[in-house]
Amino acid sequence: MLFESFTAAQSTLLWSVFGVAFIMGAIVNKTNFCTMGAVSDMVNMGDYSRFRAWLLAIVVAIVGMLILEAAGVADPDGSFPPYRANQLIWAENLLGGFLFGIGMTLASGCGNKTLIRIGGGNLKSIVVFLIVGVIAYFMTTPFPGSDQTLFSILFYDWIRPLAISLDTKQDLGSMISSENSMTMRLIAGGVISLLLLVYIVKSKGFRMNPEHWFAGIAVGLAVLAGWYLSSSMMVDIPDEGEQYSLVEYYENWDMISDSEEGKPAQGSTLSPQSFTFVNPMGQTVGYASSGLQSSLLTFGIISVFGVILGSLAWALISRSFRIEWFFNIKDFVNHVIGAILMGFGGVLAMGCTIGQGITGLSTLAVGSIIAFVAIIFGSALTMKIQYYQMLYEDASFFAALTTALVELRLLPKGMRKLEAL
Length: 421
Hints:
The chain is mostly helical. The chain has one domain (2-415). It has helices at 6-31, 35-45, 49-70, 90-106, 111-119, 123-140, 150-159, 172-176, 181-201, 204-207, 210-232, 246-251, 253-256, 278-289, 299-317, 329-348, 355-360, 366-391, 397-407; strands at 2-3, 87-88, 164-165, 234-237, 242-245. The strands form two sheets. Strands 1-4-5 form a three-stranded mixed beta sheet. The termini are far apart.
């Protein structure tokens, strides 16, 4: 899409993203698409239907990205965040994903679900949002009067040296063959998508449930729409006979533009991207604390507002809007701890169940695969521990943890401490 000015291109991008996010928020609320709920169904009931809907969204995103990238209308190589970076921060993906999985279980939902619940009237999720947002903001933004962030203080010195510097980008196609990366991505992505699709349609219960199909396809298409919109906005400079992407225009602002008016605060947030919700919660906190400066508006902030309002619209239409508050002190403490872990984990992992679990996976990045597995493991382990602590009130945490690991087949059966009832 070609525009005569940067302002027109950016405005179109933000309004378009808002529209997609609004629709996604309404659909996710209507269909109860929930990644934490998917893990809960698997662990507690042996029901894989919602997990298959999540996998369907991943398949749609992967296949769609292969098509968009092959056609030259999406550029995940230069994305924000940098999913395909040469530096594989595997320890951060692993630890962050694990912490996020624990956190979303304690806080009753992932980043996307937190926004959906806010739209539905859940005041607990507003508390979660604020905590996640503040932590995410200071994980990436220095404290006032300092050059230190939460990440640099707590994590950088010991976890960043564990990163692996690759000779290629970290997507599967580049790692298989850097000289034929696109071809290899098509093959690897095609095989993965086919295997996942076979697994998805094996379930008769899933096949017969149109709502799961609708949810998975809609969320996958929303992610693709984000990639397409953020990659395709171009500004035409007639005097130079050249066209610039938004991030290229920002980088050459002083040479192209006559004034600073309309210049965003950061150029990185203009890069190709799609939906993720932890870092954008932090961006939203920064936007609010700045007095709503228009230069701070980003794809992420707009998507946060869009999802909340879309969810609110459906809640009002379906008359499902309900004000909900904490049941007791324990419920409050669990949500606070969960929000803290989500804030730290989401930034470390470079995304949430949507940001890494769908958007990141659409790029076939190894870091996204690691984060995705870690999130599921952290959530499943937490649910198992909660189950045994509920059954055996006098049981120690160690006994519940050991038994949970046995049930997840990570320890031998002989180490089981507690029996299921």
